[in-house]
Amino acid sequence: QVQLVESGGDLVQPGGSLRLSCAASGFTLDHVAIGWFRQAPGKEREGVLCRSSSDGSTYCADSVKGRFTISRDNAETTVYLQMDNLKPEDTAIYSCAVSFLSRPTKTWEYDYWGQGTQVTVSS
To answer: Residue 76: pLDDT above 80?
Structure first.
């Protein structure tokens, strides 16, 4: 059974940092891409924020590039999202998802999703 569980969300002040984790079970990360997404209150889910592909390549959207970093530990079947210099507009539910495509960017290109973890950036 494929399962993704996110953790690490919290309340943090502007300028602070968080590291989110996405723990996978029921499959290995060797041949899949993992993406992080977010959905802010009252808004639709955005396109992929950051993505880690099975070939080792990574991608982050311009909106978070330079502040967010994605990494994976295949041995631990966990993907991380390091978020630095957080801003109030980063407040959202963050979710990870798995795709069997090589470099997916759209939500519909992902097949399995976690439940999400809440990140709140506020003073």
So the answer is: no
